[in-house]
Amino acid sequence: MVCSKHPVSAAMFMIISLVGVAALFVLLEAFFLAVLQILVYAGAVMVLFLFIIMLLDVGPEGGKASKIKLISGLAGAFSISLLVVVFLMMVQSSGWLGEASSWAPVVSTAELTTGDNLSFSTSVKSFGYGLMTKYMLPLQVSGFLLLAAMVGVIVLSKKGEEGTS
Amino acid sequence: MESVTPSHYLILALCLFSIGFFGVLLRRNLLLLLMSLELMLNGINLALVTFSRTSLNLDGSIFVFFIMTVAASEVAVGLALLVALYKKRRSVFSEDMNLVSN
Predict the structure, then answer these.
(1) With 70 as the cut, is the pLDDT of residue A52 above it?
(2) pLDDT value at residue B46
(3) CB-closest option in A36, A69, A120 to B57
(4) Which one of B12, B14, B29 has the shortest CB-CB distance to A7?
(5) Do residue A153 and residue B46 have CB atoms under 8 angstroms apart?
(6) A165 — pLDDT class (breaks 50, 70, 90)
(7) CB–CB of A126 and B58 under 8 A?
(8) What's the average model confidence in pLDDT over A65-88?
């Protein structure tokens, strides 16, 4: 996706990788999140991206500004290698990944825990319970964030129209 | 045959994050830059779901839900900004987005 020159093909590869991540969510028994991933990312966000790509008629990018590319590539390689080294050091020092080499079985939906301690479950009901009890304030804040994003997008698109006319 | 362990999922999440990071650094098309940001967020989501599944705790999955909300609103605002910039500059490349020089 990063290497493809044309934006439309990059978006297609992005859709493939998003569906792949949704399949991994299914394997991790997070079915609700897999459905949400397909609906939100592959359904809404990528359609929006493709719409904007085709609206602006973006062509493939040329080959200039290679010096900046080299410097940022070197910086990226350095930081990613730093991340990998820290990851490996954490694995070696804690031994966490070696211990958790087997998957614990998921608790059945009948014995949903109540209170603040939410246990992992495959049902959507436990999601709703967690959102409505422990994460009530973040849920409202994210709803307000969506409202603010909607108002912001409307204001931005209106301002652009006035600027050109 | 070796079975799939949580560390494999974490390594894949690290790979997704790094690919998105390189995309943010190397691409000059702002649309592709936003898409690489989405890829980074996807890597984080995968790591969060893996930790949530291994520790049998639902908090990580609920966090993924909130991250998806924030990512969707971020994409909407980012694309609106991009369209507004395109109307002014007639370009979506990051080297044309300078205010002072040239």
Answers:
(1) yes
(2) 94
(3) A120
(4) B29
(5) no
(6) very low
(7) yes
(8) 79
DSSP at B57: B
Yes or no, beta carbons of B5 and A100 under 8 Å apart = yes
Over residues B66-97, the pLDDT tens digits come to: 999 999 999 999 999 888 888 887 877 877 77
**Binary contact (A157, B52; C-beta < 8 A):** no
Q: Is B39 on the interface with A (CB under 8 A)?
A: yes
* Mean pLDDT score across all residues of chain A: 80
**Cβ atoms A2, B19 nearer than 8 A:** yes
User: Where in chain B are the domains?
Assistant: 6-90
CATH code given to domain B6-90: 1.10.287.3510
Q: Determine the residue type at A24.
A: L
Task: Tell me which residue in A2, A11, A104 faces B56 most closely, judged by beta carbons.
Answer: A104
Nearest-angstrom CA–CA distance, B6 and A130: 24
E runs forming strands in B2-98: none
B78 touches chain A (CB under 8 A): no
The rounded percent of chain B whose pLDDT value lies above 70 is 96
Domain annotation for chain A: domains and CATH numbers? 1-62 (1.20.120.1200), 80-159 (no CATH)
Give the CA radius of gyration of chain B: 17
Considering only CB atoms, which chain A residues are within 8 Å of B46? 21, 24-25
Cα angle A93, A95, A100; round to 5: 155
Give how far Cα A16 sits from Cα of A8, A21, A40, B59, B97, Å: 13, 9, 14, 27, 30
Structure confidence by residue, pLDDT tens digits, B3-35? 777 888 888 998 899 899 888 888 888 888 899
Judged by CB atoms closer than 8 Å, whether chains meet at A58 and B29 is answered as: yes
- Smallest CA–CA distance, residue B51 to chain A, in Å, is 10
